[in-house]
């Protein structure tokens, strides 16, 4: 398994593994990466994309989190696509790769938001050295295929890791 930055040439294969339909979310993430806003990490087994995560360099978009943890990039949208591929270290490898890149850029901290209804992910992050920080509500919206907008409010905990320890 190899973790590397997703390129425009990879987008179709990532779509195949984790389709986002008309939203073309992977293409959008690559575009954001090209502006320097994020780094889009993808795990590969040969030609097959297994999972991904995005490092957002400016940190969490929720103002209160950014105010509490300035200079703290956020790992976002971590996912191993196929359930049978979970629990084999791919998520850990994506996180460690994000941490290495943050360290290379001179950041001391990195963080991620975990939803209240995802305690098994929270346990994994704790094991990897992340401490629970502040609680917040992540608000985001999406349009479904019928063009209907859905607004989601998701109670979360922002967890942080000191990259120097
Ligand atoms: C959370 C996730 C990215 C972790 O990736 P992974 O490759 O399964 O993680 P690893 O193999 O490195 O570590 C396994 C640990 O992840 C945790 N975990 C969280 N959700 C899990 C799941 N659905 N299946 C298996 N393990 C899961 C377990 O604590 C497991 O620890 P264990 O092996 O002691 O049981 C992945 O399970 C996933 O995509 N889950 C669904 C989407 C999600 O919850 N994303 C996180 C948003 S914050």
Number of strands: 7
Q: Provide the spatial order of strands within the biggest beta sheet.
A: 1-2-3-4-5-7-6
CATH fold assignment: Aminopeptidase
Taking all Cα atoms into account, the compactness measure Rg is: 16 Å
The major sheet is characterized as: 7 strands, mixed
- The proportion of strand residues reads 35-45%
What is the number of independent domains?
Answer: 1
Gross morphology: globular
Count every helix, treating DSSP H or I runs of 4 or more residues as helices.
Answer: 5
Topology as a string of helices (H) and strands (E): EHHEEHEHEHEE
The unreliable regions are none
Examine the secondary-structure arrangement and name the CATH architecture: 3-Layer(aba) Sandwich
Classified in CATH, the superfamily is: Gcn5-related N-acetyltransferase (GNAT)
Overall pLDDT: 96
Query: What is the CA-CA span between the terminal residues?
Result: 26 Å
Question: Which keywords apply here?
Answer:
seven-stranded mixed β-sheet; 165 residues; alpha+beta; single chain; globular; Aminopeptidase; 7 strands; binds coenzyme A
Detailed description of the structure:
This protein is of the alpha+beta class and about 160 residues long. It has a single domain, classed as Gcn5-related N-acetyltransferase (GNAT) (Aminopeptidase). The protein contains five helices and seven strands, in the order E-H-H-E-E-H-E-H-E-H-E-E. The protein has a seven-stranded mixed β-sheet with strand order 1-2-3-4-5-7-6, with helices on both faces. The mean pLDDT is about 95. Bound molecules: coenzyme A. Coenzyme A binds next to strand 4, helix 4 and helix 5.
């Amino acid at each position: 398994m190899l973790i590397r930055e997703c390129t425009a040439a990879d987008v179709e294969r990532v779509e195949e593994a984790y389709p986002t339909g008309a939203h073309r979310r992977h293409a959008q993430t690559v575009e954001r990466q090209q502006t320097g806003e994020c780094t889009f990490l993808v795990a590969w087994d040969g030609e097959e994309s297994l999972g991904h995560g995005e490092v957002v360099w400016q940190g969490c978009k929720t103002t209160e989190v950014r105010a509490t943890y300035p200079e703290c990039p956020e790992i976002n949208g971590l996912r191993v696509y196929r359930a049978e591929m979970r629990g084999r270290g791919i998520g850990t490898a994506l996180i460690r790769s994000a941490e290495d890149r943050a360290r290379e850029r001179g950041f001391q901290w990195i963080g991620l938001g975990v939803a209240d209804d995802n305690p098994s992910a929270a346990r994994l992050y704790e094991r990897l050295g992340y401490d629970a920080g502040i609680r917040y509500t992540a608000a985001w919206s999406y349009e479904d295929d019928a063009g209907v907008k859905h607004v989601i409010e998701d109670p979360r905990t922002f967890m942080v890791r000191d990259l120097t320890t």
